Amino acid sequence: MKYTQLTVEEREKIQEMLWQKASIRAIATALKRNPSTISREINKNKSSLGKRVYIPRAAHERALTKRKSRGRKERLKNDTIREYVIEHLKGGWSPEQIAGRLSQERPSHCISYETIYQYIYAQFYRNGYGYLKSGNEDLRSYLKRRHKRRQRKGLRKVQRASRFTGSSIEKRPAIVDKRNRIGDWESDSIESFNHMPGLNSLLERKSGLILISKLLEKTANATTNTILKKLSGLPVYTLTMDNGSENQSWKEIEDKTGSKCFYAHPYSSWERGSNENGNGLVRWYFPKKTDFQAISDEEIAKVEYALNTRPRKRLGWRTPLEVFSKELNRINIENNMISVAVAG
Question: What does each C-alpha distance from 74 to 82, 83, 276, 314, 328 come to in angstroms?
Answer without folding.
Answer: 10, 13, 35, 29, 44
